[in-house]
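User: Before I run my own analysis I want an independent prediction to cross-check against. Here's the chain; please return only the structure tokens and, at the end, one sentence I can use as a sanity check.
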Amino acid sequence: MHPRATDDRRANNVANVSVPLTAAARRPKHYAQLPITRALTLGYMASLVVGSLVAVVSAVGLAFGALYSADPATALGITTSTAGVLVPGFRAHDAFNLVACLPLLLTTLWLARRGSLLGLLLWPGVLYYLLYTYAIYLVGAPFGPLFLAYVALVALSAFPLIGVVASVDDEAIRQRVGGVVPARTVGGLLVVPALLTLAQDSIGVFASAFSGGTPIEPVARRVWTVDLAVEVPAVLAGGVLLWRRAPLGYVAGAGLLLQFGLTAVALAAVLALQPVFTGSPLDAGTIVGVLVFAAVCFAPITFFTRGVASHGR
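Assistant: Structure tokens:
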């Protein structure tokens, strides 16, 4: 064989091998098992900033409760507003965010960083819960020195949330978990609570706006605002997409279920601690009802867990 032909063949073989090696080299080792289309470095960094802000804002709120209300019972307890909407005090929310949500955010970050697909699917759900929660602070908490921190938390929660979801290969997710997740059942479990929330909030809005007499600013207005503008549209869209077995529905489903369930757990936690903080009687019936709702939200996440595990096997 001619020496030049041999050299050309070797050069071609090196070129054929170098392309996938170069592409693989661009992805950090912990991304190897994740179906993503781009690196998540900025999402990790933004989420760590969010976690740091949650720690600082929660600590300040717990230390200086007068930022929220001169009445400790209002800041620490739960107020029942129009149409039965339960409105937790901001100081009580601070405690839950610090004790429960911050560790959960760091755990999902750590799992995704180590290549866990379940961590990748749940991570946006925690970010969405924080976006939802601090949007309520932004529109409902008294104006004060923490206002800009609430703005930053809402914006910085949205940035990695959108970035992570956009970076996931949604068709690969559907192939991995679609055979295990009952799309219509889980999609329906998202659509129905979203519609019920829409109905409850709308009834409260109309009841307050057209009640006659002197208009009174409803306590639930901050919850209605964020429910109707942020939560209901996203959960309803995610449920419909999953019902139709669209790839994006499988990506968003677990996170939306986690967010909805966390909202209920926060209410139950504040209700359970309210007698300790405010001296009010324990409302065991409401606590059980809220926890049942949370269980209904969390239970379908097991399908995503099984789908991830079965693909791993």
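Sanity check: Strands lie at 78-80, 86-88.
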